[in-house]
Amino acid sequence: MNTKTIFDIGSIRINGQRLWDSLMELAQIGATPKGGVCRLTLTDLDKQGRDLVARWAREAGMTVTIDKIGNCFMRRPGRNNHLPPIVTGSHIDTQPTGGKFDGNYGVLAGLEVVRTLNDLGIETEAPIEVAFWTNEEGSRFVPVMMGSGVFAKAFTLAHAYAATDSDGKNVKDELARIGYIGAEEPGDHPIGSYFEAHIEQGPVLEDSEITIGVVTGVLGIRWFDCTITGMEAHAGPTPMALRQDALQAATCIMQEVVAAALRHGTDGRGTVGMVQVHPNSRNVIPGRVKFTIDLRNSSDALVDLMVQDVKAFAQATSQKFGMPIEIVPTSSYPAQPFNAECISAVEKAAVSLGYSSMPVVSGAGHDAIYMARLAPSGMIFIPCKDGISHNEIEDAQPEHITAGCNVLMHAMLQHAKVHQA
Ligand SMILES: [Zn+2]
User: Fold this and answer.
1) Dist. CA 401 → ligand 1 center (Å)
2) What is the mean pLDDT of the chain?
3) How far is the CA of 192 from the centre of ligand 1 (A)?
4) For a tag site, which of 4, 54, 145, 224 has the least CB within 10 Å?
């Protein structure tokens, strides 16, 4: 058997210009006047985008399989096709005011890895697959990360099919309409390991002037609604000592939300993003305040400590002000650490390629979160301009685009094992 290993795979590089050109060509479908992309999931434009990527994959000699939720798996065979494939991918749907790189980068970087292996006549032991997952963005249909979520059995296919958009159209009909209901049962598709390259969507890498983010995991999230009930009264005649000012109590708890995040490690996040003040009148003491609490951290233990702190503080505040304070949980997502071997594959690839790198956590959701429940998984982040995404001005440097794809290729090859053709 010819299994001569290439010892110097370190010299292999992807074609950055070709990857950039493909990104720009895909971004023409649904291009917005401000330079962004609006390609909502399961629309005619999404179909055009899917068709183009699948055509490119076939031109690269790959086979395309579609499952019942419209996830696409583009496969480059290996020498041993009984091995589970090394999979990479992301999504090609966008937000209404989306950019060119979010999701699209991860899919086209995977395609570029395959094109490069083809150019160089390199075979891998395990097959390589590039996937794009249906409706990652969740802006037209909820839940977000729908395709990967069904695949990982986080919720059922029937639940996803029944989701409707604001016009009352449902996922199943829209999938059928664009011709992307496949035969394969979601999840009936082996995955050896999974890597996803993505723009950071945050400011950390750019701020640190680092090229590659070695993603160690995704933050756990806890959401609450907090309601404080005081008493409305005239702002003039009511002395300070005789008030039940719900907003004053609320601002104390809001400060604690931020303080709790700062108190528990470097990855704590505490946000109050929505506030409703009743009656919201200039000369009336607020009688009721409702606000949201968003707590995140790198482990469930840490995020639960933050929750305890905020709840204990709220209880003390309630006693101090003599007002009922209610904190009701609305959503919870577990922290998802990535696989140690995948993390080290990404780190090693970055080091051997000579790129600066640092460990980072993801504060946003990605398809890789669901893949991590099924197979060893890891992610690669590259900087995006000013940390901005879900915005038409989303931008990334061509050299970072290239670097992330090189890291992706080398991390995947560590798992797929290289042979000379
Ligand atoms: Zn994305």
Assistant:
1) 15
2) 95
3) 22
4) 4
CA of 263 to the centre of ligand 1 (A): 29
pLDDT bracket for residue 417 (50, 70, 90)? confident
CA-atom Rg of the chain in angstroms: 24
**What spacing in Å lies between the alpha carbon of 225 and ligand 1's midpoint?**
27
Alpha carbon distance 108, 56 (integer Å): 10
CA dist 229 and 2 (Å) reads: 75
Q: Tell me the C-alpha distance between 182 and 157, whole Å.
A: 13
pTM of the model: 0.90
Give per-residue burial for 97-127: e unless 16+ CB within 10 Å, then b.
bbbbbbbbbbbbbbbbbbbbbeeeebbbbbb
Predicted confidence at residue 419, as pLDDT, reads: 66
- Other Cβ atoms closer than 10 A to 80: 11
Distance from the alpha carbon of residue 359 to the mean position of ligand 1, in angstroms: 19
Residue 28 CB partners (closer than 8 Å, separation 6+):
none
Flag whether pLDDT at 1 surpasses 50: no
Report residue 421's pLDDT band, with 50, 70 and 90 as the boundaries.
very low
Pseudo-torsion of CA 71, 91, 332, 286, nearest 10°?
-130
